[in-house]
């Protein structure tokens, strides 16, 4: 019996010893980066020469909203009504603002609900909307090609962008901050000078941070940035506090630090020259502010950012 027990112990030891050194598969020292990740050394410019100057957040004054289902003949809204659905460009990777619910498969969030309100004003039914997922870099090309009627995707209104598309009034006022791993020692944007920072391509955040960090990495989506931060490939993510709040909610080992160092005024993007649609969307946003819809949508999605503020005050240029 003792011989059998000794043999069993020797066999167990042999099984648990693991492979010989020559059989150990080496583990890669470098985690793979997301597809289309690139290092950026200078802020991108979308137009030649000096950047344009304008009163960016002053939009077109709305007229009375037509009754749902009764769009003016010949208007852009009538064409949308005839099609039977609004086509809206949105995100599916920004938790709280525009994301895909993993249980239902539906796209949800603050921006998504704004798009639904536009559809409701056209049709009387907020479900008559087709969502097209677009990256930050695709927003303007999708509007220019006519692939979407509107873009509602944390899109900051800038003079540069107004050269290519039109915008509604401001529907949300955000600001850029910094997301880091807890206990990183980074307390705000001033701590990025010797750090690696991740941003999304096509975003205003890229230009705002590229000269403040040692290395800036550009990726297609903000969730790509979160993966790179988790893998230690970057030290921080910098973008609007709305987006960072969603990333922090997905990873309790991260935190948003520092004060806002920019103002990011979100507008609904509209194809250039469709002034009637801009005025219509502005009418929808006016109604959302006054009847409590805006505050209700904020309470549904953005409470991680704090108590609901007053909706942005509309500014018009005519």
TrEMBL record:
Region annotated Disordered, chain positions: 36-73
Signal peptide, first to last residue: 1-19
Domain Ionotropic glutamate receptor C-terminal: 85-304
Transport recorded as keyword: yes
This protein's UniProt keywords: Signal, Transport
CDD domains tied to this protein: PBP2_GluB (cd13690)
Comp. bias (Low complexity): 36-53
Family indicated by similarity: Belongs to the bacterial solute-binding protein 3 family.
Name this polypeptide is given: Glutamate ABC transporter substrate-binding protein
